[in-house]
Each structure stands twice: as C-alpha cells, then as structure tokens.
Amino acid sequence: MEKTAALASGILQGIGGEKNIQRLENCMTRVRVEVHNDDDLDLPGLKQLPGVSGYVKQGQQHQLIVGPGKAAQVVDAMRALMVGGEATASFDDAESTKAQAKAKYKAPMSDALRQLANVFIPLIPAFIASGLITGIINILKRPDIVGDFATQYPNLLGILGIFGSAVFAIMNILVGVNTAKVFGGSLAMGGVMAGILSSPQLAQITLFGEALQPGRGGVIAVLLVVILMCWIEKRLRAILPGSIELILNPLLTTLITGSVAIVVLQPLGGWISDAIAHGASLAIDRGGLLVGAVLSGTFLPLVLTGLHQGLVPIHVELVQAHGYNALLPILSMAGVGQVGAAIAVLMKTRNARLKKVIKGALPVGLLGIGEPLIFGVTLPLGKPFLAACLGGAVGGALISYWKVATVITFGLSGLPLALTVVTGKVMLYLLGYLVAVIAGFLFTWLLGFNDPEE
C-alpha cells in the first residue's frame, strides 16, 4: 500500500495538483486524467514514476498505464490525497521514450471508436465470468476428465449453466443502458429502447407482409436505436417548455424512436449484424493462414492508434450469431508474441531497470494483459515491437488454420483464454500459444535491439 500511495502522490503532483484535475477515472490498467491546463503537466516526470509502464494521450485524456487491478487502487489513493491534502513526493525528470512519442499518435475516428468501446467495457467482468464458467462446465461434462460427474450432479451443472448464460439473456438491455450513458441520454430510456427491440411480442406483429423478429440486429440495432433516442431526447429538451418537458419528452421520445426503430433501424441493424457475423466467419474460414497472420500481426498497431476498439461489437456479434468467437483467439496471439519478445530482451539486456520492468510485466503478460510489455519494453526498443508483431502473426496463422474458437466475447486473453476454448481445440490453442512465444523470441533475437544505457 505504501508503493500505491507514493505512486498516487507522484501522479497527483505531476499533473499539477488537485486544482488542475477536471476528470479522474480508471479502466482495468490505466489511470485516466483530464486536466484544465496541459502546461501544468510534468510529463517527463510522470513517465518515469516507478510503477508507470507507459503513457498514452487520447483526445483530451492523459492515460498512465500502471497495471491490472492497480489502476483502481491508485485512483482511490489519489482521491484520498485530494481530500486529505496535497502530495509532496518529487521525482527526477527524464526524456520521453520512443514508445511514448509513438503512443501519442491518434488515428482518425479513434475518439468515436473509444465511445463505442466505452459501451462494452463495463461489461468485461460479466463476459469474463460467463466465459470461465462455461469453460468449467465443458470440463465437468467430459467423462475422460471427471468421470460420471455430469450424471451424478445434473442440478449443479444446470445452476452453473444459468450463471454462465445470464449475461447473454440481458445483453441488449445492458448495452442499451450503457449506450444512453455514453451518449448522454436517460439510462432508463436506453433500457426501454433495448427492451422494445427484444420483446417477444414483436413476433406476433406483421409489418409489410413479414413477421417482426425479436432481437433482430442484436447489439448493433440497439446501438443505432439508443443513439437516435439520445439525440431526439436532447432536441426535445431544448424546445419543450420546462413545465411539460418532464412528461412529454419521454412520451414523444419513446413513440418517435420506437417507430423509427421498428420500421428502419432494426432491419438495418439486422443487415449490418448479419454482414459482420457472416463476413468475419467467412474470412476466417476461407482465409486460413494468411488471414490469421494479418489479423494478429496488425493488431498491436491497431491498439496503439485506438482503432482496435471498433472490433468490440464484432466480437459480441460473433457470439450472438454462432455461439462462439473465432476472432478472439487469433487476436490474442498478438499479446503472446509480446511475451516471447520480452523474454528475449530479458536474456540479452544488461540494463537493470529494463530487467526489473520485464520481470514485473511478464506475469500479467502471460495472463493476456500486454500493455505493460508494449509500452514499457518492446515499443521503446523499436525492433522488439516489430518482432512481437511477427511472432503474433505466426501464432495467429496457426490458430486460424486450426479453426480454434472460444465461447467468450472479449475481455480475456493469454493463458486464461484456454479455459474458454471450445471442446477439442484446447491443446491446439496452447500449441499455438507456445509457437507464438517461440516465434516472438526468435524474431527478437535475430533482429536485435540497441540496449539502453542505465
């Protein structure tokens, strides 16, 4: 806890103190800060704080990568310091690294895609729990592993099945609420719009000669409808008299948005959803080695630019459409290549600080959280980042060729993902994992790197 408090104190001082903070929050691995005045930031000092493995700027938001679980602890400690007094810790300045300079690049549409991803990020814990529970069920159903457990305890498996599938039963409602939150609408109205699209009573209604389909378009339709709802709600709030706005706004918003949703947006969402699910599946099935290599080999650059966030709805659509996700295991190999590259750097470098960073980042890298390795190790060194991409491409090619798939949508990667891989493909996933590590190691060893001075 002392290290966490020291890090929180250092960050607070580096961003110009409590008065400079406009917004403070965290995700799984990053402390996210928006400030009033960027000139008050001590970026070189922030980047060199012990415990900070990388820095990224997206839009107006400054993001410090501190690692999984630790991000929430650091933000809590910062808030405690903001209430109790001003931080006093000081740290030496240092020049920004090549990794941090590259990480500043913001690709077109990255802000819009970040908003899209923010709809799904709060659902990650539920997806992880669901995937792991489903993986446990698959193991318990195998007589070659647990004998006749399934026949002896059918009720237990039934209860676990409910636990594992619950998130998908209310998926559209959760997405509707989160979309309204991200785009500035009423949360309850967002849930209502999703409820309209998912209502079983739609099947009893015929429109233009065809029966309506409950849930058609999945999360894509929900996103389109709730975004429209937020826009209509804001417009009505601006033009309706205050005395009747509270009553007429939700009424008119529901009637207008619901009508457009049923007639236009749900069919459009269904077409987009089918195109995404079938297109992605067809590309993976037909593309084999080449598609797998391209997807995995280019994923880390997408992460740097923020464009990877646009893949989130695709993951969800694949599971909703097919019951499994063939894209996630391929992309996870990108992080595995990082592991091999980092091991090679660890064996070759003589820089004590770099060794310490690698030893701290490798355990979470094995678990599929690659940001500390990307921003703290491979990207600053240049060539190891390229080698990691190449190693990931080798693993992704094999995973695609073997048609490995998982039951989880997103949020899990690395070795834990093996627990969610469909029956019969687990060993192939682990073999692909091992090959990606070896390939990342060999490419790094052959390409080499300039060992930084202490």
Strand content: 5-15%
Which structural category fits the helices and strands?
A: mainly alpha
SS summary, helix count: 20
Using the alpha-carbon principal axes, give the shape. globular
Largest sheet: 4 strands, antiparallel
What gap, in angstroms, lies between the N and C termini? 28 Å
Level of helix content?
Answer: 55-70%
Mean pLDDT comes to 84
Counting DSSP E segments of at least 2 residues, the number of strands comes to: 6
What does this structure look like?
By secondary structure, the protein is mainly α. The protein is about 65% helix and about 5% strand. It contains 20 helices and six strands. A four-stranded antiparallel sheet has the order 1-2-4-3. Strands 5-6 form a two-stranded antiparallel sheet. A hairpin with a 2-residue loop joins strand 3 and strand 4 (about 60-65). The model is unreliable at about 85-105 (pLDDT under 50).
Summarize the structure.
With 454 residues, the protein is mainly alpha-helical.
Provide keyphrases for this structure.
single chain; 454 residues; mainly alpha; four-stranded antiparallel beta sheet; 6 strands
Helix-strand blueprint:
Layout: H1 2-14, E1 21-26, E2 30-35, H2 43-47, E3 54-58, E4 61-65, H3 70-84, H4 98-103, H5 110-120, H6 124-140, H7 143-146, H8 149-152, H9 154-169, H10 171-182, H11 187-198, E5 206-207, E6 210-211, H12 218-239, H13 242-297, H14 299-305, H15 312-322, H16 327-348, H17 352-366, H18 371-381, H19 383-401, H20 426-447
Antiparallel strand pairs: 1-2, 2-4, 3-4, 5-6
Helix pairs in contact: 1-3, 5-10, 6-9, 10-11, 10-12, 11-12, 11-13, 12-13, 13-15, 13-16, 13-19, 16-17, 16-18, 16-19, 16-20, 17-18, 18-19, 19-20
